[in-house]
User: What shape does this take?
Amino acid sequence: MIKFLFLVVSAVVLFWAVNTFLCSPKGIAPEIIEVTNIKILKLNSDSLKLDISVFALNKNDTDVEIDAVYLNLLIDKDTIGTAFRTEEIKMKKFDTSTVSFFAHLNTLKAIEIASKEKDTIDLNMKGKVSADLGLITMPVEVDLNHQFDLQKELTKTIEKDTKNNKLLKVQSAKLNSVSLGKSTVEVAFNLTNPYGIDILLKDYPSQIFINENKSGEGNISSEIKLEKENANANGSVIYELSNIKTMSSLFGSILKRKLEYHTVGILNLEVLGYSVQFPFNFKGELVII
Assistant: This one.
């Protein structure tokens, strides 16, 4: 009888303690409120690797930890990828935090859906994670929606890689002739495909400046298409220098055998069926032929 009463009293005390904990600022599950940003880290023919940032809120007056996270990425209830974080999320009391997840999306599915939705994806990130509140562990529901502008992020990624010489590298730049009539500059380059997806270099309408003087206009000699990963091809941009005043100003520099150039233009590519455009420039020294 005494043992029974002891068990009853213990159960009541435990219930009271847990109930008090849950009703206090120490027993509120943290919230993952919204997706703040999504950017492409890497892309290939199989998957898009993403960095997803979310805004989280801890309403407790103690620090909390959220265990490793694995979530599903859905579009119209179809799973097209997963989001994950292997490290614990540690949050201070009464604090907010921006937390990053890695994610993988199926490339072909994402492109197919985005093309139907005018380049954006209504992405749903859904699942459960566990929060360690010290005395107890509580489930945290995650159900977030975000409009992911695939074309915009694709352009950012390819622009960054191009400017880091992962796609285009200058091989040489030659001033073929100098006269008060028609003269040309040829900038030879190599185009590489680091992704294993279809890349079409359509054109590069641009201007060339020699020793800071606007000297002519030009474009690539022909389109270049690459389909396989690490495939590469050579191309060139031809600039016509026909301005008499400009050519006259170059003679002093030509005698010194040093001509510096840079180009200003818009690089136009087609990637995964998307038009990708961004400002781009070559620069270096001209070799006089």
Remarks:
- Residues 29-150 form a domain with the Immunoglobulin-like fold (CATH 2.60.40.10).
- The first helix runs from residue 2 to 22.
- The chain has two domains: 29-150, 165-288.
- The CA atoms of residues 201 and 224 lie 5 Å apart.
